[in-house]
Amino acid sequence: MNVLLIGNKIYNNFMFNEILDTFENNYRFNMCISNNNNGTKCDKIVLNNHVYASARSGCEYTIQYYKKCLPGVYPMHIINFYNELKKYNLIEPQSNQWQKLNLFLNKIGCPLKFKRLPRVGYIKMIELLMMNIKVFIYGFSVCILPKNDNHLYNDEYVKKCLEDSGHDHDSEIEILIWLHNKGYVDASLCLIEDKKELSFYESSIKPTETILNLLKNDKESHM
């Protein structure tokens, strides 16, 4: 089984809906909302600790929580997130037993390890690999992106909070690159620049033939 992990990068120019919808099985994360040029299918969603806890307490509680703690997450986005939750086949809380992920990385010969609690998308990525599921990835960082690059939480205060969150973004990216280069995951979609015509970021990884063919077929279907 193939599974697509949908990260929270925002694309305004390159059209992704039909490409991402070719995958029947997907995971979204936290307050990611579909139909924002990030595919239309809502299969499964994983919420990190504070999103899961606040989501169980209700929409109004969540609005007030983020108003106080992360004011860059706007009330209407939270309302839309709550309205979409009922569409999912499965809602999961994140796993906190992240040390087992490093055991798996060591088992497959990866010289790298997570130094801190990984972000929820990376936790799910390794968990799926441990189940021998092929993982495709969209919307994760695989290189240093331009300062004007867009993200779901594209707010200066929120960015500062994320920097202070205790995650080690650099080690996460290094592990993702290693896994892609060894064929465990396919992060080719993360390389696409937000331009109308297809182009790729400079990175230490290259797009696979599988994704290049998918992009070719998508282009031909619109000719």
Task: Give structural attributes.
single chain; 223 residues; alpha/beta; sialyltransferase cstii, chain A; 9 helices; 39% helix; globular
- Rounded to the nearest angstrom, the distance between the terminal CA atoms is 30 Å
- Average the pLDDT over all residues and give the rounded result: 89
User: Care to count the β-strands?
Assistant: 6
User: What portion of the residues fall into strands of 2 or more residues?
Assistant: 5-15%
Question: What is the CA-based Rg, rounded?
Answer: 17 Å
Task: Walk me through what this model shows.
Helices cover 39% and strands 11% of the residues. It has helices at 17-20, 49-56, 59-69, 75-85, 99-107, 120-130, 156-163, 169-181, 209-221; strands at 2-6, 26-29, 44-47, 90-93, 134-138, 185-186. The protein has a six-stranded parallel sheet with strand order 4-3-2-1-5-6. Helix 1 links the parallel strand 1 and strand 2 (26-29). The longest helix is centred in the last third of the chain and has 13 residues, at 169-181.
Architecture blueprint of SSEs:
Blueprint lengths: L1 E5 L10 H4 L5 E4 L14 E4 L1 H8 L2 H11 L5 H11 L4 E4 L5 H9 L12 H11 L3 E5 L17 H8 L5 H13 L3 E2 L22 H13 L2
Parallel strand pairs: 1-2, 1-5, 2-3, 3-4, 5-6
Helix pairs in contact: 3-4
